Amino acid sequence: MTKRKVLLAQGGGPTAVINESLVGAVLKSREYDDIDAVYGAFHGVSGIVSEDFINLSLESSENLENVAKTPCSALGSTRDKPDEKYCQEIFKVLKAHDIGTFCYIGGNDSSDTLRILAEEAISADYALRCVHIPKTIDNDLTVNDHTPGYPSAAKFVASAFAGVNQDNRALSGVYIGVVMGRHAGFLTAASALGRKFDDDGPHLIYLPERSFSMDSFISDVKAANDKYGRCVVAVSEGIHDETGEPIVTKLAKEVEKDAHGNVQLSGTGALADLLCDSVRDGTGLKRVRGDTFGYLQRSFLGCVSDVDQREARAVGEVAAAHAHDGDRDGTVTIHRTGEGASYGTEYKLSKLEDVAGKTKVMADEFIADSNSDITDAFVTYLKPLLGSDMPDTHRLEAGRVEKILAE
Amino acid sequence: MTKRKVLLAQGGGPTAVINESLVGAVLKSREYDDIDAVYGAFHGVSGIVSEDFINLSLESSENLENVAKTPCSALGSTRDKPDEKYCQEIFKVLKAHDIGTFCYIGGNDSSDTLRILAEEAISADYALRCVHIPKTIDNDLTVNDHTPGYPSAAKFVASAFAGVNQDNRALSGVYIGVVMGRHAGFLTAASALGRKFDDDGPHLIYLPERSFSMDSFISDVKAANDKYGRCVVAVSEGIHDETGEPIVTKLAKEVEKDAHGNVQLSGTGALADLLCDSVRDGTGLKRVRGDTFGYLQRSFLGCVSDVDQREARAVGEVAAAHAHDGDRDGTVTIHRTGEGASYGTEYKLSKLEDVAGKTKVMADEFIADSNSDITDAFVTYLKPLLGSDMPDTHRLEAGRVEKILAE
């Protein structure tokens, strides 16, 4: 048997640790004598068709370690989803370069791309080992306990809300922060991990797992503001009415869709502005502010969970090992082996079709009955993922001075 | 002479290190035997009128050190600006509690509040030592080389742009990030410190020190996109046309103003969305995304410059020392004593009226002739302020694989 090559690529939205997985797969693959070279394709499957490869066998370990610590797909990404003809183009290039293994780092769209490719390879009688390496800040891959990229993004969201809660305490008003998450509310729910004291925000959390009612929202905000003298709200960009129509498209002038048919939700402040206007009109409250966390959530330099870094590295290594030693295609999945201080994970090779194109949403046990908060079970679930250095907030504790003039 | 009390308060927008200054002033004041107690007023001058005090002499040093590391005014803040009657109310309370010293941590509005209070105290024949402690993420205080709070916010902005530049490399398009800064562009300019490689964004930077032309903006974006195949833009929220009218008010439905007469610029995504729409319409480019960094810039938990922390602590200490040992009111100012590796600062007591209510903007030498970038002189100015642990980005370096199929 001739030595063949391993090809790696990255698809979909970047994460803070996606390059850990890349580097894990590169370094592991380089351990095997019977692998001719490790290539990377630029911009996912689109870079295969255009023969746009880099020889990762020639990268120094030192530089690879530096790249691992850099956020966002070092190889670039794509939203392309290949059809049969696209697959034929891919096989032509893979054959020319004698590539026998393809590991694709991505979310549910990228895993579906790999499923299609694996099926077409069989039809085309092209010997190709396909292994999917999970990543997504949305945490919405089935089978997995959680997905690399999510813990770091969750740490960003929790840190952001811990901070804006302090800001809102200093200068009170209503604050609405819009968080990424089309169908799954995991990232929005992470806002709750920014709380420490009983009256800390976010006081309200709205997830795409539940229908959003503008009337309930306004009365919730009013009630929270009456109680706390201020109100911090976390809202998922994917909130929708009871018919499933996203709240943001109710006012969007034109709707932009990607190759996977997804409506554009990020990169616009429209939802936050709409919600702020509704609160102002509906409550009469004056100081109402809205922020859309946007692309910072998945790319911010310097906010990363060390647990996430290690796990992202591991899934890359495990994928390379399965690709080399295993006898079937699949997707590497993460499974939790312990809670709290005993937190741990193990990695398995699951079937591509069990993950590909599917979406996991938050379990009912993670969502409070009020539909505007999360449960303690969710805090228990997320806490160990945030890593060892999640910062903390503190308050002045000394008592108030007795008033002399006022009665 | 009877022992009198020291009163501390915080005004205006919070920063990541404003509590370092508070704690510096508390701990320094507690060193003096002839000070009866150190009080804090909640929500700035408004907490004086309402006699809402905390006895900071009773706080443990341990908790004070924890609070120092927590972002955003631990005492709360206010945008109130007292008139003569308001000042009389203040003196009534100060007299009742035998307060002889007032140190107010804030920006140019808060320093103006202190100037008014100091003048009214003389008219009212109330013996009050007034010392202003500088803070503002806008970096717009006169006399000062820079102001506490700015370096940490600048680190946030630089880290954010370093990240979104990576994101934009992975999935190309036009990205517009709107940064805080009404009149001064220092914080927006900090985006340039996120660059490392020649083709890194932000490729365009628009500051409120220059008039903004929508036509030039669109042709600049088009040119950058033609050159780099993508375009990252940093824009100050305060950009305005040649008449001085803010670009954002050109489409705002209603304009909100604070007690100082400032139009609301933050807490809305309107400017980013307007600019994105203009780029789409003007260039025909499809993937155009806009984020407004919002309140995260000044409050994000865990993004802080250690240089900023130390300097914020120092201005609090120096203010307390001047208040105790000095013979005049004033504002503590920061002066640079060396550049690069020799970077250092010294602190002086300057006149309140030299800083109060005044605004410093970026010097011409910091702004490129193109009006859409900053100069190397600005990079030299800002770099030492970002502290010892500003993270870095790295790229894959190995060469491209020679194409076999494509000619």
What do you see in this structure?
The structure is a homodimer of 407-residue chains. Chain A is of the alpha/beta class and 407 residues long. Chain A folds into two domains: 4-148 and 303-355, Rossmann fold, CATH 3.40.50.450; 153-299 and 362-386, Rossmann fold (3-Layer(aba) Sandwich), CATH 3.40.50.460. Helix content of chain A is 35%, strand content 16%. Chain A has 13 helices and eleven strands. Chain A has helices spanning 18-29, 44-49, 61-68, 84-96, 108-123, 150-170, 186-189, 214-228, 270-283, 296-299, 306-325, 352-355, 376-382, and strands at 4-10, 35-41, 53-55, 99-106, 129-134, 174-179, 204-206, 231-236, 288-292, 330-338, 344-350. In chain A, the strands form two sheets. In chain A, strands 3-2-1-4-5-10-11 form a seven-stranded mixed β-sheet, with helices on both faces. In chain A, strands 7-8-6-9 form a four-stranded parallel β-sheet, with helices on both faces. In chain A, β7 (204-206), α8 and β8 (231-236) form a beta-alpha-beta unit. The mean pLDDT of chain A is 94.
* The level-1 CATH class of the largest domain in chain A: Alpha Beta
The percentage helix of chain A is 25-40%
Quaternary organisation of the protein chains = homodimer
SSE string of chain A, helix = H, strand = E? Answer: EHEHEHHEHEHEHEHEHEHHEEHH
**Strand fraction of chain A:** 15-25%
Largest sheet entry of chain A: 7 strands, mixed
Number of spatially distinct domains of chain A: 2
**SS element count, helices of chain A:** 13
Structural class of the secondary structure composition of chain A?
A: alpha/beta
Unreliable runs of chain A: none
CATH topology of the largest domain in chain A: Rossmann fold
Provide mean pLDDT of chain A, rounded.
94
Rg measurement of chain A, Å? 23 Å
Architecture of the largest domain in chain A, CATH level 2?
3-Layer(aba) Sandwich
Q: How would you sum up the global shape of chain A?
A: elongated
Distance between the termini of chain A: 92 Å
Major sheet of chain A: order of its strands? 3-2-1-4-5-10-11
- If interface size is counted as residues with C-beta under 8 Å from the partner's C-beta, which chains form the largest one? A-B, 87 and 87 residues
Number of strands of chain A: 11
